[in-house]
Design brief:
Layout (H helix, E strand, L loop, with lengths): L8 H22 L4 E4 L8 E5 L4 E5 L4 E4 L11 H28 L8 H28 L10 E4 L1 H21 L1 H7 L1
Antiparallel strand pairs: 1-2, 1-5, 2-3, 3-4
Helix pairs in contact: 1-2, 1-3, 1-4, 2-3, 3-4, 3-5
Length: 188
């Protein structure tokens, strides 16, 4: 047997998907484009307002001139879906990091046998972290058109929200793959 051949496929899948999920949710959390507001009345036609959970930016599409730290005149940041996202996204990121550390200890390729129980627990933590980032992304999407915006403007989903969805799904799938390690514990 080659030393690296004993790591079960499900563990490898979990250890590939979850860091990718972390990268996507981290980017989605930090970037200010959960929602894009365009065609604002009395503004240049190519002006887009990007709203995240921490910041708001204005960008002129023609000149690519971008200014962040815009004033929140409509009370956007005070809205419950935004506040929930501000709490749950960082919590999810911390849990993902914790889950990955536990997963690394459980999968440990340099040991003869992986620690299946530890890998399974890591899977549950990563599954939970994926759900914790999926909830605010879903809620925000559900409320996207209800959140305050200038009258008669056009609202669309921003790329940060898409990244959060993808990242959450990868973490959930990776977490599920790692929870398959419990099956091995039951067999023993």
């Amino acid at each position: 047997h080659l030393p690296g051949m004993r790591t079960p496929t499900a563990m490898i899948v979990g250890l590939v998907l979850c860091p990718c999920g972390l990268l996507l949710t981290l980017t989605g959390t930090l970037t200010p484009s959960w929602r894009q507001v365009s065609l604002l009345p009395d503004q240049p036609a190519d002006l887009v307002l990007e709203q995240g959970i921490w910041d708001m930016c204005r960008e002129q599409q023609s000149s690519h001139e971008r200014r962040c730290g815009q004033a929140d005149e409509l009370g956007y940041f005070a809205q419950v879906p935004v506040r929930v996202a501000q709490g749950l996204m960082p919590t999810s990121l911390v849990l993902t990091l914790l889950g990955l550390v536990v997963a690394a200890l459980g999968v440990r390729c340099w040991r003869k046998e992986p620690r299946h129980l530890l890998a399974g627990v890591a899977g549950l933590v990563l599954l939970l972290s994926g759900l914790l980032s999926l909830v605010p992304a879903s809620w925000y999407t559900h409320e996207l058109w209800a959140l305050p915006a200038p009258a008669r403007s056009t609202l669309v989903v921003g790329y940060s929200l898409v990244l959060n969805y993808l990242g959450s799904c990868l973490e959930i799938l990776g977490g599920l793959a790692l929870t398959l390690s419990f099956h091995h514990c039951c067999k023993e």
